[in-house]
Amino acid sequence: MTAQLNPRGDVAVLVPAAGAGVRLGPGRPKALRLLAGEPLLVHAVRRVATASVRSIVVAAPAAEVAEVRELLAPIAPVTVVAGGETRQDSVACALAAVPADVEIILVHDAARALVPPELVESVAAAIRAGAPAAVPVLPVVDTIKRVSAEGVVTATVDRAELRSVQTPQGFRRAVLTAAHAAGSDALTDDAGLVEQQGVPVTCVPGSEFALKVTRPFDLALAEHLLTVAPEPVAPRTLIA
């Protein structure tokens, strides 16, 4: 059954899904790799569509646009566009397809296929409350070392001030549009583009279920999580 998006919602979710996923090994584009028998992209869109969003725009590999449209049609009303050479290009392509009157934009990685809908809601709520940008974060639990090019430890980094950043990342539309227009460096997330413009980025509690499937181990972990907790879970309270 196709999920019905909220026609009165003020949120659009962009899903850049054109990446190759080299670290997952040879095969299809990452967003189309199977997790428990369904593509990562299907899992991600299904969960995002459960939240109060008005529009979902997927930037798919150019050669797979028709396939992705057909794949997502039973899940939710989704606009599918061809992505670009880089993640930034794909986000820009998706942003251009968002209805003009939608003011809150979330950007979500298809590889974070198990994102809880509650996390989508909390990021959108932070923007609605006045933050120009917001990201979900988790505390860093490992000891972090700074290492030289020769493989020698040069310092131990204080992890109390460190956070692991997830998606969806939320923005006022004007903030994200301006950051993409001005940004030139190839950064790994949209919050980095916004930070370059001097815009403050608010943190909200993340979720372990919003893990990013990057390596074969991550795929196996995500499949295990689906067996022990198939339903979305709420973001946990941020701790140091």
What does this structure look like?
- The chain is α/β, with parallel strands linked by helices.
- The chain has one domain: Spore Coat Polysaccharide Biosynthesis Protein SpsA, Chain A (Alpha-Beta Complex).
- Helix content is 29%, strand content 21%.
- It is built from seven helices and twelve strands.
- Strand 2 and strand 3 (38-39) form a beta hairpin.
- The longest helix has 13 residues, at 216-228.
- The model is unreliable at 233-240 (pLDDT under 50).
What is the structural class?
alpha/beta
The residue ranges in which pLDDT falls below 50 over 5 or more consecutive positions are 233-240
Sheet-strand content, in percent, reads 15-25%
The biggest beta sheet is recorded as:
8 strands, mixed
The CATH top-level class label: Alpha Beta
Instruction: Give the helix proportion (percent range).
Output: 25-40%
Q: Mean pLDDT across all residues, rounded? A: 89
What is the CATH topology?
A: Spore Coat Polysaccharide Biosynthesis Protein SpsA, Chain A
For the terminal residues, how far apart are their CA atoms? Answer: 41 Å
Instruction: Count structural domains.
Output: 1
Shape verdict: globular
Element-by-element helix/strand order? EEEHEHEHEHEEEEEHHEH
**Quick one: how many beta strands?**
12
Rg computed from alpha carbons, rounded to a whole number of angstroms: 17 Å
CATH H-level homologous superfamily name: Spore Coat Polysaccharide Biosynthesis Protein SpsA, Chain A
